[in-house]
Amino acid sequence: MRVAPVSLFCAARRNTTRGSPPSREECFQLGRDSAALTHGHPTGQLSSGAFAVILFELLTGRSLVDASTLALDILARHEQHQETTQAIERALHLGHTAPQDPDSLPLLGAGWVAEEALAIALYDPPGAPEFRQAVALSVKHGGDSDSTDSITGQLLG
User: Fold this and answer.
1) Sign of torsion, CA 36 93 129 116?
2) Which residues fall within 8 angstroms of residue 22, CB to CB, at 6 or more apart?
3) What is the rounded distance in angstroms from the CA atom of residue 87 to the CA atom of residue 122?
4) What's this model's pTM, rounded to 2 decimal places?
5) Going by C-beta distance under 8 Å and a sequence separation of 6 or more, which residues neighbour residue 127?
6) 133 vs 90, more confident
7) Cα 122–10–152 angle (5° rounding)?
8) pLDDT at 19
9) What is the C-alpha to C-alpha distance for residues 116 and 58, in angstroms, rounded to an integer?
10) Cα 49–Cα 54–Cα 56 angle in degrees, nearest 5
11) Alpha-carbon distance 97 to 1, whole Å?
12) Are the CB atoms for 33 and 12 separated by under 8 Å?
């Protein structure tokens, strides 16, 4: 939930003429390294790297599904990516097949761990007709709702 500045930095650097802009992989690594300060488990770090790439790609004009697919491509190249990959894939699938359904949230977890918080946030936006509804849905679970709400707001912002 604290990795958005990494994405903003990478996107801003992409739009400057000084130096070489960060690649998607570099943005992933910056997000992953940033998370390592507070997340000792590899899945927390990989989820943060994936989120950094998703936000980075959204800021450069990609759709959420396309941005998530690019993040999945990078994740696949890293050891221990399976939990994060499965969480993202599950969220995108549910967002397509059962959008805006509070009963689907338990299928994604409670948001207490990074990949679940990311999945809950990714589930909301695809079917969200408006910002308020998406943010409201992202807290309708008994878990870490401030994290899921923060991530959802960042994606929609």
Assistant:
1) negative
2) 9, 10, 13, 14, 30
3) 9
4) 0.91
5) 95, 99, 100
6) 90
7) 20
8) 67
9) 20
10) 95
11) 26
12) no
